[in-house]
Amino acid sequence: MSESKKPLLGFVHKLPSGTAPGNSGKTRCPLCMGLFKAPRLLPCLHTVCTTCLEQLEPFSVVDMRGGDSDTSSEGSIFQELKPRNQQSQIGILCPVCDAQVDLPIGGVKALTLDHLAMNDVMLENLHGEGQGLVCDLCNDREVEKRCQTCKSNLCQFCCQAHRRQKKTSYHTMVDLKDLKGYSRVGKPILCPIHPAEELRLFCEFCDRPVCRDCVVGEHREHPYDFTSNVIHKHGDSVRELLRGTQPRVEALEEALAQIKRVNSALQKRVEAVAADVQKFSEGYIKAIEEHRNKMLKQLEDIRVQKENSLQLQKAQLEQLLADMRTGVEFTEHLLASGSDLEILITKGVVVERLRKLNKVEYNTHPGVNDHISFSPQEKAGQCHGYEVYGAINTKEVDPAKCVLQGEDLHRAREKQTASFTVLCKDATGESMGRGGDNVHVAVLPKDKKDSPVRTMVQDNKDGTYCVSYTPKEPGLYTVWVCIKKQHVQGSPFTVTVRRKRRPHLGVFHCCTFCSSGGQKNARCACGGTMPGGYLGCGHGHKGHPGRPHWSCCGKLTEKSECTYIGGQSTSTSLLRTVAL
């Protein structure tokens, strides 16, 4: 019987948008969405119409397995195994799950027919839930009867012809409506090698169904039996495998359920965090805007204050200039045009006025400057609980008012880091209170001015700057500290670098008796002794300095340089000093 090939309308290679796998049921193709026509079972256990599979775009794959493939097909089960070598093979993708399907040599039509799906389609048509069945012989008219002997669906015309033929005249014919209670009405499964024979036997060696002609031909030496006799054994093995698979299905379903729950929790958490971010951002933006408005208002107030100061100074200078011009013009006119007597008469008034004008103090420089700067990195406190940055600064550092501080200002040790602090102030002597000024420091040896010492300047962001350097050799050094290319107060200055401090060899103790635990032979550089044969000092005894001191050299300052020199004898008996 020839297979009817009708073109698919609106064919696509993928499932239609919004169609989930399995929604088409057991009788409809997931591609064309129509009832199955010659359905083929793919290795991934999805079923698709033969015509739909033929319209998929194939691709070339390389098969390293030789002729032994996972692809199950009726046409390939009787082919001999090929040698294991590399060969090119044609494949397609399953339109449901995108699994790769290696096509057998016969192509799509060599794939396994899904007889179970064909039976379901037949049952659906019998119950009037699908389209009308078409006659198996003419493939044209609708089915009215079914031959129970050859399992064929026939139209009225073909049914009459079926009865007239001698070979089929004895076949039993039933009306189609009488089959609605049946669970299986499928056609007999015929052998692909011998189409006239049904597959009733099973070859144990080849593990596949065969027909009567097969067992006397290609399978004549293979053990075989009727399918009804071997179905229990093979069915049990499939059931056993199914029992081992079902827990995995449940585990995967539980895993997917957990993923769904976590994803749901994730979405809720993301929404909550997004709300927090939105709330924080809105509050921060509001705080920044309010801080901006404050700074702009502050800037406007500074402008008004400076302008008022300039206007006042301008008015005062203009008035003073007008008074002076009046005095100068009147005096010049008096001296040029007045008589001797007139000059003498008005001299007193003129002299007093000019003297008074000359005594008036005034500033020739503007009382305010245009120094206004914005420091975006400067902390400006909090606004509505948010830390805000940026400040308007009107102070300007005055190098002449800046001072230098620190214990290491004029002294240092070789190969030891020395440091001091630069305190920046404005013209009024007030601390700048902020950083950002360009402080330049140079440390130069007096005898090697072309070899400056490397210096580090750390901005403390509060108007102070920590300067550190490490001289490599002892001697005199000159230190320059400049701001805005001007020396600060006290710069330049000289630093005396002495040799590296000698560490103490003994202990800083109150007395030898206490630090040694009462040892008689323990000595101290202070020269003190105790009665009873003790060679070291003790509280209240002869020679004790009365305060803590170093046992090696007798110095009373804990942070000091050791002066002990081995080999010399002094009044403090340094030779008897013991390092404890």
TrEMBL record:
Record-level GO cellular component terms: cytosol; intercellular bridge; nucleoplasm
RING-type domain ranges (all copies): 29-98
Filamin repeats: 394-497
Domain B box-type: 130-176, 186-222
CDD domains reported for this sequence: Bbox1_TRIM45_C-X, Bbox2_TRIM45_C-X, RING-HC_TRIM45_C-VII
Keywords: Coiled coil, Cytoplasm, Metal-binding, Nucleus, Repeat, Transferase, Ubl conjugation pathway, Zinc, Zinc-finger
Leader sequence segment: none
Membership in a protein family: Belongs to the TRIM/RBCC family.
Group of enzyme by EC: transferase
EC number: 2.3.2.27
The reaction(s) this protein catalyses: S-ubiquitinyl-[E2 ubiquitin-conjugating enzyme]-L-cysteine + [acceptor protein]-L-lysine = [E2 ubiquitin-conjugating enzyme]-L-cysteine + N(6)-ubiquitinyl-[acceptor protein]-L-lysine
Keyword Chloroplast attributed: no
Function: E3 ubiquitin-protein ligase that plays a role in the regulation of inflammatory response. Mechanistically, mediates the 'Lys-48'-linked polyubiquitination of TAB2, a regulatory protein of the kinase TAK1, leading to its degradation via the proteasomal pathway and inhibition of the TLR-mediated inflammatory immune response. May act as a transcriptional repressor in mitogen-activated protein kinase signaling pathway.
Native organism: Marmota marmota marmota
Compartments where located: Cytoplasm; Nucleus
Protein's UniProt name: E3 ubiquitin-protein ligase TRIM45
Any one of the GO BP annotations: bone development
Any coiled-coil regions, as ranges: 249-323
Cited Pfam families: Filamin (PF00630), zf-B_box (PF00643), zf-RING_UBOX (PF13445)
GO molecular function, one term: zinc ion binding
PROSITE patterns: FILAMIN_REPEAT, ZF_BBOX, ZF_RING_1, ZF_RING_2
